[in-house]
Amino acid sequence: MKKLIAVIVVVIFLALSSFLWQIGKSRTFQFFGEIIPRVNTTEKVVALTFDDGPVPGGTEEILSILGQEQIHCTFFLTGAELERNMEQGKKIVAAGHEVGNHTYSHVRMLLVTPSFVKQEIESTDKLIRQAGYQGEILFRPPFGKKLFALPYYLSKNGRKTITWDVEPNSFPEIDASSEKIVEYVLQKTQPGSIIILHVMYSNRKESMKAVKGIVDGLKLRGYSFKTVSELLATAQ
Ligand SMILES: [Zn+2]
Questions:
Q1: How many A from CA of 159 to the centre of ligand 1?
Q2: Is the pLDDT of residue 236 over 70?
Q3: How many helices, marked H, and strands, marked E, lie in the chain?
Q4: Does the structure show a pLDDT above 90 at 98?
Q5: Interval between CA 190 and ligand 1 midpoint (Å)
Q6: Ligand 1 centroid vs 183 CA: distance in angstroms?
Q7: Bridge partners of residue 194, in order along the sequence
Q8: Rg, the chain, Cα only
Q9: 107: CA distance to ligand 1 center in Å?
Q10: Residue 109's pLDDT is what?
Q11: Residue 49: φ, ψ to 5°
């Protein structure tokens, strides 16, 4: 009997862990508050978003590409990098892009305490304001991971969790080549999509190279680019 109970307990524990693991990484569901992987619209509008940084070099390069394309995007920045590279943060704001909060230390926010969540988010908000950003500060969890404390804090504070529906960097065979990244994004993007790209670091050259192809290709297909906030405002 004891053995049976032990087996049942282990099975329940494994099933529950697997369930919570799936919830933790879901792009479209969380226990509290609003999570937004895309918006519902028939208009050909799309948001291009960049995660991590700012770092010197990568910031200037992406700002120059977006400046030539004359589009505005959303940058989800980490507090730690912004603190070290405030000059680059200010350049992103000055160029008219939207800045979102991507936590201070970029850890997986799964089994974290409420006080840790508060500290991670509020210290980063403060740095984003120091960079001169004045709009609503949207939030994106590192690695898209969240479970209890993070969504609870966000929903209590009326904050939206922004994920994505087009993620070329998540597939190594696509991520390895700028042509494949462009092809994947052009294929997967729909009206209202939120595209996630990582271009800041020196090991992300293929993604950086893909930006122009993505933007030109989507423009050619009739899309216009919005920040995530602007995209949310067009939702039907
Ligand atoms: Zn990240």
A1: 18
A2: no
A3: 10, 7
A4: yes
A5: 23
A6: 23
A7: 47
A8: 19
A9: 9
A10: 82
A11: -125, 145
